[in-house]
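User: Let's play a game. I give you a shape written as tokens, and you guess the letters that built it. Ready? Here's round one.
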């Protein structure tokens, strides 16, 4: 353990300021590896539980946590990764989070950067839309690719999530052509179970 996540007075979400140095936060687990340490929405209001936006890289790690209760009127109910952040998220249960936005990401929202998500359970999350713009996508995970967002998603279980419009489990926005020199990485989903997710379109 290097640093306890801080509840930011500005964003009202938990943050690890890991831009320039190694920071890790690991919770406790049961004997079978099930996370026992819970991080809920940190205070009154509507924000993500964890918010990464200071250029955090793969050396910024959250591990063995239950992340739940996020309520956000912006993308990312449980975790929001913006501004080219690339945290590592390991063996976390990201469950029962909600966002209402024209984009989405009930469980996790990624806009720029290349997070590593491994061994996680992402379940029971909802990406809801404003009544006048029913476009929310990615009930479990929304990857917003126009800013060259990518992700490495491995050995995860993504089940029983819901999105108002597209991608009940996982949604990629705007595929990046392989020869597009703007981006040097791509989304990969390897050895994951994706089932029981729902959305209006697909």
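Assistant: Ready! My guess for every position:
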């Amino acid at each position: 353990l290097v640093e306890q996540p801080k509840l930011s007075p500005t964003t009202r979400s938990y943050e690890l300021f890991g831009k320039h140095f190694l920071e890790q936060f690991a919770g406790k687990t049961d004997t079978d590896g099930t996370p026992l340490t819970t991080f809920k929405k940190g205070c009154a209001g509507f924000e993500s539980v964890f918010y990464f936006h200071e250029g955090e890289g793969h050396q910024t790690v959250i591990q063995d946590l239950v992340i739940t209760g996020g309520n956000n009127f912006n993308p990312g109910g449980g975790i929001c990764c913006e501004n080219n952040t690339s945290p590592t998220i390991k063996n976390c249960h990201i469950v029962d989070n909600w966002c209402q936005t024209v984009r989405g990401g009930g469980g996790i929202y990624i806009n720029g950067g290349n997070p590593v998500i491994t061994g996680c359970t992402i379940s029971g999350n909802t990406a809801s839309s404003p009544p006048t713009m029913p476009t929310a996508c990615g009930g479990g995970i929304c990857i917003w690719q126009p800013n060259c967002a990518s992700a490495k998603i491995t050995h995860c279980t993504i089940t029983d999530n819901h999105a108002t419009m597209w991608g009940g489990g996982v949604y990629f926005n705007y595929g990046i052509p392989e020869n597009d020199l703007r981006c040097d990485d791509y989304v990969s989903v390897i050895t994951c179970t994706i089932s029981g997710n729902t959305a209006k379109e697909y």
